[in-house]
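Objective 1b. Sequence-to-structure analysis of UNC93-like protein.
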Amino acid sequence: MVVMPSDDKSNSFDHCHRRNDDRGTFPISGYDNKAFRQDGDPLADIISKPPLQPEEEPVPKGKFKMSRKEKWRILKNIATISFAFMIQFTSFQGTANLQSSINAKDGLGTSSLSAVYAALVISCIFVPTFLIKRLTVKWTLCFSLFCYAPYIASQLYPRFYTLIPAGILVGLGAAPMWAAQATYLTQAAAVYAKLTDQPVDGIVVRFFGFFFLAWQTAELWGNLISSLVLSNGVHGGGSQSNNHTMSDEDLRVCGSNFCVLGGSQSGNLERPPDSEIYEISIIYLACIAVAVSIIAFLLDPLSR
């Protein structure tokens, strides 16, 4: 006996079938997930990667997509920091080279230099990371360069209670200054190497070489300024005739036979007049002000 389906069920089946036929089909697009290939996914063969948009240009491998002016901006910053350090150390090296002469009494000058480098040893351990994190590289440079100013100003009134604390301040500021300088040059070299598609190591060496070329000349300019001021003053005999006859006694203690012991006196070991020291100190203070201003107004920060 065969049981025929009722009309109600047939109508219900036809209604559902028509609803399924009314469903639309939609295109499928997206990225092909290679992890699900051969995993029974019926859509794996029809999914493909969308084409590259026409307005997008592929960036060459190893280069940044930057303006051409960025290259010259980096070179300008390297020249700026090098020139600022040259002026800064024209001031400091010129002053440091005179300490054993102008502040020879009781070993004040050499003691102040010892305080500088003793504080520098301690500063290298604790200060650079702390200061750079809070001030950034650029403003760490400005702050550290300014730490040299009190030491130069103390030459106007040289005492143990002025020169020694000022020397300690120089040492505390020197470590973050050199750390910030090295950080700036290294990161600028890395960007420049990417921009020009050159090896990073070669650019780092080139930038540091240019920097130390300028920095080493500071010794020359500092000694030149000191020599010009002292030789043209009263102490250097600028207003007197340099033509005089030396006795045999003077010649016997000249050159390799010269010795400050035994009561020998020499005008070259006397402290120059205060007016000449004031003149040198003011010139060197102006150099520090110029160096700090160059960093503050001409050097671009690393992050812009």
